[in-house]
């Protein structure tokens, strides 16, 4: 339920670029506090940006896997070494 609601928030923000917390709460039929909590989590995940009662979707061209840098650095090491040659 929470994941579906958060995905609905992201979908709404993709379509509308920016919405107020009140508009999101009305559209999803939940409290503004629920929207604030969801937006806080989505901001932590890097999906939205919150600003003075509004939220907007962050479009990222190249989304990483979410793994820490030191893990990504070691992934596909042989392939990266071949490219460097």
From TrEMBL:
<dbReference type="InterPro" id="IPR036390">
    <property type="entry name" value="WH_DNA-bd_sf"/>
</dbReference>
<dbReference type="InterPro" id="IPR001034">
    <property type="entry name" value="DeoR_HTH"/>
</dbReference>
<dbReference type="Pfam" id="PF08220">
    <property type="entry name" value="HTH_DeoR"/>
</dbReference>
<keyword id="KW-0805">Transcription regulation</keyword>
<dbReference type="InterPro" id="IPR050313">
    <property type="entry name" value="Carb_Metab_HTH_regulators"/>
</dbReference>
<keyword id="KW-0804">Transcription</keyword>
<feature type="domain" description="HTH deoR-type">
    <location>
        <begin position="2"/>
        <end position="57"/>
    </location>
</feature>
<protein>
    <submittedName>
        <fullName>DNA-binding transcriptional activator FucR</fullName>
    </submittedName>
</protein>
<dbReference type="InterPro" id="IPR036388">
    <property type="entry name" value="WH-like_DNA-bd_sf"/>
</dbReference>
<dbReference type="GO" id="GO:0003677">
    <property type="term" value="F:DNA binding"/>
</dbReference>
<keyword id="KW-0238">DNA-binding</keyword>
<dbReference type="GO" id="GO:0003700">
    <property type="term" value="F:DNA-binding transcription factor activity"/>
</dbReference>
<dbReference type="InterPro" id="IPR018356">
    <property type="entry name" value="Tscrpt_reg_HTH_DeoR_CS"/>
</dbReference>
């Amino acid at each position: 339920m929470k994941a579906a609601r958060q995905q609905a928030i992201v979908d709404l923000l993709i379509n509308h670029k920016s919405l107020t917390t009140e508009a999101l709460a009305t559209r999803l039929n939940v409290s503004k506090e629920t929207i604030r909590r969801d937006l806080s989590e989505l901001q932590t995940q890097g999906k939205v940006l919150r600003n003075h009662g509004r939220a907007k979707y962050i479009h990222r061209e190249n989304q990483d896997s979410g793994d820490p840098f030191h893990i990504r650095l070691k992934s596909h090491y042989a392939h990266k070494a071949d490219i460097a040659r």
